[in-house]
Amino acid sequence: MKKILEIARKYNLYIVEDACQALGSSYEGKPAGSFGDLGCFSFNTPKLLGGWGDGGAIVTNNKALAEKIYLLRNHYNMAQTSVRIEDFPTPEVIEWAGKSRLDEIQAALLNVKWKYYDYLLARRKEIADMYCKGLQGLPIKLPNYGEGDVIQEFVIRMMKSDDRELLKKHMDEKGIELLIRETVPNHKIKNLGLEHFNLPVTESISTDAIRIPAYPELRNDEIQEIIQAIREFYGK
Given phi > 0 = left and psi -120 to 50 = alpha, else beta, which region is 26? Predict the structure, then answer.
């Protein structure tokens, strides 16, 4: 973020910060989502603070941007939003916009879950620690966590990329879901004109990374079952 901020200041650029999987994390004491001009968070079901459907939030200290976002989320109309019309009057000229208001049911659920958010983050960290301890000694790369990190996903990387599909098949037979995603890096997608980038780390991750269940509702015995199934795959 330091480097990105330097570039943005130099060229007078806005920073839109994608913090959708980082709610509650921080870097050098500063919360994710507060570095840029805008910080974006997701309340989609599998996210750290997930609802029963789609949802999200944008944070900013820029009043002009806040006013524009209020309009864009609500048919370019301030009259039907939860803001003071005196503070954000509806403009005389109406532009195209959409409907992106969070409905009351989602808001009510998230409001309750927010009260337990610290516990949910702590439980995810606890689960990650159990995985890191239980999967030690296997031919896989385990993640490293530092101060201020949160656990949205628990991602392991195969030492041998061929093992990824084999492990997925093994776990499917055990009734344990693992996720394989982002198998084609963005710079390798056809017609984007990004093929000239040389990103060996990104390309490696796309071939060897796999996600293990890490949601806070997992019981300890379920976590041990997952660990044991992975160890069994490696004959350990």
Answer: beta
